[in-house]
Design goal:
Length: about 280
């Protein structure tokens, strides 16, 4: 699945209006119940995590895979896997480095079995020392994952992660435009795209506009939505913080972005209510 393929799925058999392209992050909720909720409310895009709970990577036998595949196909619902940002993809220690490759491979292989259309990945963390070694390890892990994703027809989407306070010991990689360039410049493959997270961009001086000016929309496979006030990593309901969603939608849609959006905040009720608000901000 390529970026253009993901975008095509956002409009195939559906109205191309924004409302039909807004999905949600179900986290560790079991996929079957997330699908049932999506059917009830007309939602077509779901993100799940497969680290714990019923979605754990080892909990998918052939019968469950077949059942889920039927549910997705019968209801024209599209699913992606969101790997855990707490797993340090920038790991270089013996044994641990091999475990990172195994973790990414397991998610990619499960994605292929499920018929997932995107897999969100991360660049990992550094601890203020050995930054260059962390960056190299991170890029190398993602390069190997991209080769496997290509072979299995999967699409990796690198998420721009959030700023941590300057005096924190741990910092996420790929949280600024400069750091994202390290990855997008090093991995120029169709199977390696971008999960643009607006609320993370709002935490750094680059801002939403800076990220979109630097990278455009061609590599975006999904846009993740939440709000904040630009200082602390919190996932507020859109409209409660200071992100200019009207301007953001104008930039994205005006540049030709036709993919889906992911609500990554709040309760189910808050998601449904905010979906209407988001559509209003986009002028649709």
């Amino acid at each position: 699945m390529t970026i253009s393929g993901i975008r095509q799925q956002a409009s195939d058999g559906e109205s191309n209006e924004l409302r039909a392209r807004i999905g949600f992050d179900a986290g560790t909720q079991d996929l079957e119940s997330a699908i049932a909720w999506s059917i009830l409310h007309g939602i077509k895009f779901i993100d799940i995590n497969c680290d714990i709970g019923s979605n754990h990577i080892d909990n998918w036998d052939d019968g469950r895979i077949e059942n889920v595949a039927d549910l997705l196909a019968d209801n024209n619902i599209h699913v992606g896997i969101h790997t855990l940002s707490a797993v340090n993809i920038a790991e270089f220690s013996p044994r641990m480095s091999e475990a990172v490759d195994g973790y990414l491979a397991a998610n990619i292989e499960l994605g292929a079995r499920l018929g997932a259309e995107w897999i969100t990945v991360h660049a990992g963390m550094h601890f203020t020392t050995e930054l260059e070694a962390r960056r190299k390890a991170s890029i190398d892990h993602l390069k190997r994952a991209t080769i496997l994703a290509e072979a299995l027809g999967q699409q990796l989407l690198l998420e721009n992660l959030n700023f941590e306070p300057d005096d924190a010991e741990v910092h996420y990689l790929a949280h600024t435009v400069e750091e994202c360039h390290w990855y997008f410049d090093a991995i120029k493959k169709d199977a390696f795209g971008w999960a643009f997270t607006a609320n993370h961009a709002n935490l750094v001086p680059d801002g939403v506009d800076g990220f979109l000016k630097a990278f455009g929309v061609d590599r975006i496979g999904c846009v993740r939505l939440a709000d904040n006030v630009g200082t602390v990593e919190v996932h507020m309901i859109p409209g409660e913080g200071n992100i200019d969603f009207k301007s953001m939608f104008h930039r994205l849609e005006g540049a030709g972005y036709g993919g889906h959006y992911t609500m990554a905040y709040g309760t189910p009720v808050q998601k449904l209510e905010s979906r209407d608000w988001l559509v209003e901000q986009a002028g649709q």
